[in-house]
Amino acid sequence: NAKYAGGNTFRFFTEAMNLSTIERLRLENALRQAIANNELSLHYQPQVELTTAKVLGVEALLRWTHPTLGSVPPSRFIPVAEESGLIVSIGEWVLNEACAQARRWRDEGISGITVAVNLSALQFRRSDIVAKVRSALDRCALPAGMIELELTESLLMHNADDVMRTMHELKAIGVKLSIDDFGTGYSSLAYLKRYPVDRLKIDRSFVNDVANDPDDAAIVRTIVQLGRSMKLDVIAEGVEHPAQLDFLTMEGCHSAQGYLFAKPMPADQVTPLLYGKRDPGGNGAGVANAA
Ligand code: C2E
Ligand code: MG
Ligand code: MG
Ligand code: MG
Asked: Where is the EAL domain (predicted)?
């Protein structure tokens, strides 16, 4: 932050800091209007079961299109939203929108899928998160099991008792819980045993080189085996190449997500891929499910 140092000198205020501060403020101010101006939307990326090629669910990923800034990637605006606290209201919007979309899919006869929603640490630590999740489900009359909440590993390392209580309350509602970007945090395996999580998402950074780098291969193999022995589902993210898929399949990884299968897409483009999950009696021909 700029410190006025007397005279006309702003000490510590380099041009780079100046620019990034202005950039940050500009994004923050723009983001403040984003919900009201309908600039936010969700894309959905399919999650595929490896043994059957069925689409088991989708991950909801936030998109922001500003009238003059254009499309701003999450890697730029999520940190700003987190530092400014805006992520709390934005995250609530995401939760409600994801539930509304899950409701629309159910109304179209699609069942048995999960819709995963990313929760930021700040959102999770707010005392009203459990009530917010419950009311989002209630508003859409949605079975809780249709929603999965993705938590980051770093979140689990702090305030262990509070985190544990919140996780148990969320599990009691019936939502599923997963650990996102697994392996990138300060891994203490002790918490895995204690926290009521349903699945681990192997971070893309390990999947990238899994077919060539023996270290990455060992890490992925270890996470898959860990999941198996702790009865947790394991999903690999960022699968782009057939060689990565082959490795994951060979190691018995349960499911995967990545450009090789599908990019994140607007709901209407994802819907045809979900028809394989229709209720018996539904007339959808399974696109990703042509067994
Ligand atoms: P994430 O939760 O780990 O999401 C996966 C990211 O990997 C997404 O980036 C997705 O588009 C990207 N991805 C998926 N498959 C591939 C692939 O095959 N190759 C490559 N190169 N990338 C792939 P995205 O949508 O840009 O989101 C980035 C991060 O922003 C997310 O990482 C998540 O941490 C955060 N984020 C996105 N939406 C939300 C949200 O609604 N709430 C919160 N709190 N965070 C969000
Ligand atoms: Mg995620
Ligand atoms: Mg992830
Ligand atoms: Mg990731």
From this structure: 24-278
